[in-house]
Specification:
Order of helices and strands of chain B: HEEEEEEEE
Strand content of chain B: 35-45%
Oligomer: heterodimer
CATH class of the largest domain in chain B: Mainly Beta
CATH superfamily of the largest domain in chain A: Thiolase/Chalcone synthase
Number of strands of chain B: 8
Distance between the termini of chain B: 22 Å
Number of strands of chain A: 11
Mean pLDDT of chain B: 95
Shape of chain A: globular
Structural class of chain B: mainly beta
CATH class of the largest domain in chain A: Alpha Beta
Radius of gyration of chain B: 16 Å
CATH architecture of the largest domain in chain B: Beta Barrel
Radius of gyration of chain A: 19 Å
Number of domains of chain A: 2
Number of domains of chain B: 2
CATH topology of the largest domain in chain B: OB fold (Dihydrolipoamide Acetyltransferase, E2P)
Number of helices of chain A: 13
Strand order of the largest sheet of chain B: 6-5-4-7-8
Largest interface: A-B, 35 and 43 residues
Helix content of chain A: 25-40%
Shape of chain B: globular
Low-confidence stretches of chain A: none
Order of helices and strands of chain A: EHEHEHEHHHHEEEHEHEHHHHEE
Strand order of the largest sheet of chain A: 1-7-4-2-3
CATH topology of the largest domain in chain A: Peroxisomal Thiolase, Chain A, domain 1
Structural class of chain A: alpha/beta
Strand content of chain A: 15-25%
Chain lengths: ~400, ~140
C-alpha cells in the first residue's frame, strides 16, 4: 500500500513568533537547512516539494514555484496544497501518493506562513455577500454559532473546555518553540473570565495569529533503508473529507467530516482510538478539540465534555494531547499552523520530545481542519495515523 | 431584572454586497422587500445561499421562488466584537434561521433582547435598507411591534 511504503525521515520547526522580522522564504530556508542537516540528505536528492497555500503568498498564483526558485531546488514534482488547516497532514498523503506513483523519490514538505507580518489574501467567496454584511467577524462567530447549537443539543460544560485550554497552555510552557507571549500559565477561571468574542466563544477559546514554519522530509522506505536510516515514522492510515453532507440543506452541525475521515484512517491503519499513544488534534478553537474527541470515537456523541473531565491529557497522562501546546497555546502560524500539530506528533514518535516526551510511542494521531463554510461546521477534515517503523 | 438590549446595527454603514451573476435575482427582489430563494425542480427542494447549480443534483434546472421568510432560530450567537464597520455597535445578535421551506439562513436578529433569544424561537423577515434601493435580510421575533 502506498502510505506504508513512504517514510518521514526528518522534521524541522522554527520558533513561532508574534510577528516575524524575517521573510517567509527565510523561514522556509531555515526549515530546508535544518532538514538537510538532520537527515544527512543532499539538496540534489530532493526531487519533490509540497508547500501549503499561505496567507502571505495568497495573491501569488505561482506560490510553490516561486518558493522553490528562491530555495534553488530542481524538481520533478512541485505542488501547492490548498486545503487550509488540512494542508500539512494532507501533504503527507499527497507526498506518499507521489512517491508511490514514481513521480519523485524524496519530497520536502514545507509549511511556512507569516500572516501577521504580511497577508495578501483577497477572499472571493460567500463571506462578502452573505455574512460580513450581517456582522459575522469570521471564525469566532462561526464557532459561536456552532457552540450554541451543540449546547442546545447536548449541553456544554465550560469548565471541561477550560481544562483543555489549561492543559495545552502547560504544554506550551514546556515548548521552547512556542510563541513566548503564550508561555504563561492560565487557570480554568482565567479561561472562564476571558472576554467574550462571540458568545460562548471567549478569547481563550481562540488561536492567536502568529508567524512560523515547519516541515518534513519524506522518501520511499526502500530509499531510506538503502541510505542506512534505521529510524523513521510511517503514515499508516489517512482519511480526508471535504464538504461533509454538501448535498443536504439543513444538517446537524455538531457532526463533522471527521466521522468519515476517522473511520477511513483507523480502518486503513487497523487500529482503534484506545491504541493511540498521543493525540494531536487541529485546534483553531477549544471546542473543535472536544468535537474531534467525539467524531474520532474517543468519546460518545454528546459526551465529549464528560470524557475531558475524566481524562488526563498531560504528557504522562491517559491520552497526551497537543503536547507542544497545540496552535492555541503555541500560536497559529497562519495556514502553516497544521504543521505545529503534525510535527509534534512526528517528534513524539522519534522519541525526541524531551521534557514532554510521552511513554507510549506506538501510534500518534494527527488531524486537520480547513475552511469554514456557510452555516455548517468546517469544510475539510483530515485524520492521519503515524507509527515508528516496525 | 434589567434586560440587556441587543443593538440592531441599523446604523452600521453597509456597502452593496459583492454579488455574482447567479445571485443577482436574490438582490434584485430585495428592492421590493421580497425573498426569492432557488428551487431545484428535480428534487423539489429549496437551497440557500444561491449557487450556480443545484447542490442536490449538480444540474442547472433551478428556478427562483418567492417564500415568506418565516422560520425559527436554529442557533445564535451574541457578537461582542464585530468586523470593522460594526465596532462600537456591539453587542448584537446573529442567528442561523431555518426557514419554513427548509433552508438555513444567517442574519442579524433585531427587536430582540439578548436574553430573549432562544433556539426554536419563531422569527419573520426584517428588511434593512442598503444603498441603491437594495435591502438586507434580517429577522425579528414573530409578534414584535
Amino acid at each position: 500500500m502506498a502510505l506504508r511504503d513512504s517514510v518521514i525521515v526528518s522534521y524541522a520547526e522554527a520558533k513561532i513568533v508574534e510577528k516575524s522580522q524575517r521573510d517567509v522564504w527565510e523561514l522556509a530556508a531555515e526549515i530546508l537547512d535544518s532538514l538537510l542537516t538532520k537527515s544527512g540528505f543532499d539538496k540534489a536528492e530532493i526531487d519533490g516539494v509540497l508547500v501549503n497555500a499561505s496567507l502571505t503568498g495568497a495573491t501569488n498564483c505561482f506560490w510553490a514555484q516561486s518558493t522553490v526558485d528562491y530555495l534553488g531546488l530542481e524538481l520533478d514534482f512541485c505542488q501547492s496544497v490548498d486545503i487550509g488547516g488540512c494542508s500539512a497532514s494532507g501533504a503527507v498523503a499527497r507526498a506518499a501518493a507521489a512517491l508511490d506513483a514514481g513521480l519523485c523519490t524524496t519530497v520536502l514538505l514545507l509549511y511556512a506562513d507569516t500572516p501577521v507580518a504580511e497577508t495578501t489574501m483577497r477572499p472571493r467567496g460567500f463571506r462578502n455577500e452573505w455574512t460580513l454584511p450581517q456582522g459575522v467577524i469570521g471564525p469566532p462567530a462561526d464557532f459561536g454559532l456552532l457552540s450554541k447549537r451543540y449546547e442546545h443539543q447536548f449541553g456544554l460544560d465550560y469548565e471541561a473546555l477550560g481544562k483543555l485550554a489549561v492543559t495545552q497552555r502547560q504544554h506550551a510552557m514546556l515548548n521552547e518553540l512556542a510563541c513566548e507571549k503564550l508561555r504563561a500559565p492560565i487557570s480554568i477561571d482565567d479561561y472562564l473570565n476571558s472576554r467574550m468574542i462571540a458568545d460562548p466563544i471567549r478569547l481563550l477559546d481562540c488561536v492567536m495569529p502568529c508567524d512560523g514554519a515547519s516541515g518534513l522530509l519524506m522518501t520511499t522506505r526502500k530509499r531510506a533503508k538503502s541510505k542506512g536510516l534505521d529510524k523513521f515514522v510511517v503514515p499508516i492510515g489517512y482519511g480526508e473529507r471535504t464538504n461533509y453532507r454538501a448535498g443536504e440543506n439543513v444538517v446537524d452541525i455538531t457532526e463533522t467530516g471527521h466521522v468519515a475521515a476517522g473511520k477511513r484512517a483507523f480502518g486503513q491503519a487497523g487500529v482503534k482510538p484506545t491504541d493511540i499513544g498521543s493525540f494531536h488534534p487541529y485546534d483553531d478553537f477549544i471546542i473543535a478539540v472536544m468535537l474531534q474527541l467525539e467524531m474520532l470515537g474517543f468519546a460518545k456523541r454528546g459526551q465529549g465534555c464528560a470524557f475531558i473531565s475524566e481524562t488526563n491529557f498531560s504528557c504522562s497522562g491517559d491520552l497526551p494531547l497537543n503536547t507542544s501546546g497545540g496552535q492555541i497555546s503555541a500560536g497559529q502560524a497562519g495556514l502553516a499552523g497544521g504543521g505545529t500539530n503534525l510535527v509534534e506528533g512526528v517528534r513524539q514518535l522519534f522519541g525526541e520530545a524531551g521534557s514532554r516526551q510521552v511513554k507510549n510511542t506506538r501510534y500518534a494521531l494527527v488531524t486537520g481542519i480547513g475552511h469554514l463554510p456557510y452555516g455548517r461546521n468546517w469544510g475539510t477534515s483530515v485524520t492521519l495515523i503515524l507509527t515508528p517503523d516496525a | 431584572m434589567v434586560m440587556t438590549a441587543a443593538n440592531d446595527t441599523l446604523n452600521v454603514k453597509r456597502e452593496v454586497p459583492r454579488m455574482f451573476s447567479f445571485s443577482r435575482p436574490f438582490w434584485e427582489a430585495t428592492r421590493d422587500k421580497k425573498l426569492f430563494i432557488q428551487f431545484c425542480r428535480t428534487t423539489r427542494q429549496y437551497q440557500f445561499y444561491p449557487r450556480p447549480v443545484s447542490i442536490f443534483t449538480g444540474r442547472r434546472d433551478l428556478e427562483w421562488r418567492e417564500v415568506s421568510g418565516r422560520g425559527e432560530i436554529f442557533t445564535f450567537t451574541t457578537a461582542w466584537r464585530g468586523p470593522a464597520p460594526f465596532r462600537g455597535h456591539e453587542p448584537y445578535l446573529i442567528a442561523t434561521v431555518t426557514l419554513d421551506v427548509g433552508v438555513n439562513v444567517i442574519g442579524n436578529i433585531v427587536n430582540c433582547g439578548l436574553d430573549e433569544i432562544s433556539v426554536g424561537m419563531k422569527v419573520r423577515p426584517f428588511w434593512a435598507p442598503l444603498p441603491d434601493g437594495l435591502h438586507l435580510l434580517m429577522f425579528e421575533p414573530e409578534g414584535s411591534n
